[in-house]
Known about the structure:
The protein contains 4 helices and no strands. By secondary structure, the chain is mainly α.
Amino acid sequence: MKQKIYMLAIALVLVLTSPVTMAKNTKPANQPLTTEQQIRLEEITRRVEEIKSIDRSSLNREQRKDLRNELVSMKKEAKALSGGVYLSVGAIIIIILLLILIL
């Protein structure tokens, strides 16, 4: 009886995840950046280099916090421009099942 429930659960997971993994990818993986996006990425990299060259010991706490926030926002913007890593639903389910089995 336990074996039937176990096999039914596995079959259910496989049936639910197979259509997701076989879905057609409508967005190409490597889209070339437009000239505006390339210019913005270059601006971001120049600004990051400027921030790295700043002597932070002469800055007060507020200025350091502002620089840190600026770096975080530029990092998010650069990730959004260059694309990101996406996991499918099936991959997430498999990762969760593996973690449950291991732990």
